[in-house]
Amino acid sequence: MNNDTLAILLIFGLPMVALVVGAIKSIAKDKSASQPDPMLQAALTQAEAHATRLEERIDQLERILDEDIPGWRARNAR
């Protein structure tokens, strides 16, 4: 995978992860008002943990790109 592909993946991947985390939190908040389903709660907890790990990985990849390819964000924002 070349640097441009990785950068594009990061640019589009981060908003997708944010949307998934937002949806999960919204569903969890709505569901908490009623009787919580233990299976759903476990799945939501697992999905939230997974989304958090993905966000951390994206942050780390962005830091690596910032060090290795200064200005990569500006080049791919066109």
Automatic annotation (TrEMBL):
Residues that span the membrane, as ranges: 6-24
Lineage: Bacteria, Pseudomonadati, Pseudomonadota, Alphaproteobacteria, Acetobacterales
Keywords: Membrane, Transmembrane, Transmembrane helix
Pfam name, any one: PspB
Source organism of the structure: Gluconobacter potus
GO BP terms, alphabetized: phage shock; regulation of DNA-templated transcription
Signal peptide region: none
Record-given protein name: Envelope stress response membrane protein PspB
